[in-house]
UniProtKB/TrEMBL annotation, chains A, B:
Entry keywords, A to Z: DNA-binding, Repressor, Transcription, Transcription regulation
SMART domains in alphabetical order: HTH_LACI
Pfam families, alphabetized: LacI (PF00356), Peripla_BP_1 (PF00532)
Domain HTH lacI-type: residue ranges: 2-56
Name this protein carries in UniProt: LacI family transcriptional regulator
Cited CDD domains: HTH_LacI
DNA sequence: GGCGCACGTGGAAACGTTTCCGAGCGGGGA
DNA sequence: TCCCCGCTCGGAAACGTTTCCACGTGCGCC
């Protein structure tokens, strides 16, 4: 790989001049510009970004740590964030924490070692240590979708209460009185928030308050199926079930259909298949890509010295079936 | 952010000693080790990976460019590759090309500027320029799922012919004689390969060779729906349709159901929803995560000075409905 | 016709590491 | 007692950039 010295030698100028030409510094003669451009092209020269960022303070790279690339919700969020960064001339480095805080910690250490300009992350449950140490090291951080106790960083979340309320009122209007909840892991803030919003709205509306109607699951497909089985085992079983994410909904749907049970399922997050199955699922739509884009914009502001601010996004009920 | 100089000052030793202690060089006294460790901990010191990689040749970072994070096939592949890299002590930097060769080019330039140790990529159609320039710059490259004309890099692909053959024979055994194909874009090698494999196997088995039974699409959901509509408009319409990827299958499924048509749909790539819809879809399963892992192993070998080799993976038909 | 000024350039420092080289110091063997 | 060796360490060079500083050149102006 050729360096700036090679270019300088070939162009017959000093490395300072090469640097000036290539970085668009006006203090260069047309002849130098021509010769340097020519030489750089001929050698296929690409400046070493690591050396650049050593000299400059910035790296132009933004770390993006998400919970699970295979979860479409997070994949969409990552995509939205990435597009926004790209538009601002930055490059993102995506890390997949795989819902595992040990892997997350590893990537966050790498981000820190790489001296990324900022980090956008949807934190894992387990430990807030990784995020906290980033914040303490002075690296701009914005949290995605989940909050973290004791970490002083802006967050972009959806209005959980609004979403749950929309869903429960929809089900109540359709005559349901006994509604089950398949909740995500309480180790993440969204999991906890959804449980408490569910309980409080259910009680406000005077629906069946039996505690066994709230079943905790791990957020994965299998966990959703198991939780659905447990709900169906109750007597009487709930006539409607609200599921906290798309993966669990898929498991729950299969369990319910396997039993031939007549239970109405409502899911968080809209996905194509929810329209394709019979009956189609009503959903609480959360625009993940938008969330990612908003969060990235916040992070870019923060990096450019702006003040931290958090945003709560609305959800939208899409009634079906 | 503290540097090695800060640690050295606090520990009362030279930076050379700090470096030796922290990199596990045995030429250090127990007292130095103790003092340095203590100081590093106290300062929350993280070595600057960019400075390290400037001095060393390696960066420990592997670039991973995939076509579309939102496509579960590629998300799985990325996940498999990432796990493999993680196990080998490397960190991956994921770039989402979004099926756009301009974005891809941008990320590949960034990879090159960052001097990543190697690049694993599922190339876009359009231009092979990006991949070629990496190879010419001497950066180890392995291609994922798609080949690229004129680029001398190992590839990991699935056995297209085998997959198509399994699907067509399955359909023939179920009595179908007029089978449609929704093909991916011919700008990518898999798109082209599937069309020619389809045509040759169809002819070998003596099935209806009408050229209008092969419909090209863009690989996206909407394109799949449109192609399905065109197939259904034929008279006679095909009684079975093979779709080249999961996104297009979802569009095609909806179109077929919307028409109330009695057409058997078989899809490449297995996804959860294909089991949930009615009727469930038979699929040609391609283990994307495994592909990613295999490709990463090949890349790691290449980085460590091994010789390049390509791998073709088998597909598996899962008959349903 | 000198003086100063703008402009272009080369040289060198600095960014934060790793590693080589040489030096100091102590101990053991002749 | 002296020498040599091994252990530990500090100093400095090098990696590839950017940018500051100073210097030379040519021009316009008094």
């Amino acid at each position: 790989m050729s360096t700036i010295h090679d270019v300088a030698r070939l162009a017959g100028v000093s490395i300072g001049t090469v640097s000036r030409v290539l970085s668009g510094n006006p203090a260069t003669s047309p002849e130098s510009r021509e010769r340097v451009r020519e030489a750089a092209l001929q050698l296929g020269y690409t400046p070493n970004a690591r050396a650049q960022s050593l000299r400059l303070a910035r790296t132009g790279v933004i770390g993006l740590s998400i919970s699970d690339v295979r979860n479409p919700f997070f994949a969409d969020a990552a995509h939205g964030a990435e597009q926004e960064a790209l538009a601002a001339g930055r490059v993102t480095m995506l890390a997949n924490a795989d819902e595992d805080s040990a892997i997350e910690a590893r990537y966050l250490r790498a981000f820190r070692a790489q001296r990324v300009d900022g980090v956008l992350m949807s934190p894992q449950g387990g430990s807030a240590e990784g995020a906290r140490s980033l914040v303490e090291a002075g690296i701009p951080v914005v949290l995605l979708n989940r909050t973290l106790d004791g970490v002083d960083a802006p967050v972009v979340t959806f209005d959980v209460r609004q979403g749950i309320e929309q869903a429960i009122m929809h089900l109540r209007d359709r005559g349901h009185r006994r509604i089950g909840l398949i909740a995500g892991p309480v180790s993440v803030s969204t999991g906890r928030a959804r449980v408490s919003a569910f309980e409080s709205i259910r009680d406000e509306l005077g629906l069946d308050p039996a505690p066994e109607l709230v079943q905790l699951a791990d957020g994965r497909r299998g966990g959703g199926a198991d939780a659905a089985e447990r709900l169906l085992d109750l007597s009487p079983a709930p006539t409607a079930v609200l599921s906290s994410n798309a993966l669990m909904s898929s498991g729950a749907f299969e369990a319910i259909r396997g039993r031939g049970a007549a239970v109405e399922l409502v899911s968080f997050d809209d996905q194509d298949w929810m329209r394709l199955v019979d009956p189609p699922l009503s959903v609480i739509e959360q625009d993940a890509a938008h969330m990612g884009a908003v969060a990235m914009r916040l992070l870019l502001e923060l990096i450019d010295g702006g003040s931290p601010r958090s945003v709560t996004l609305p959800t939208r009920l899409i009634p079906r079936g």
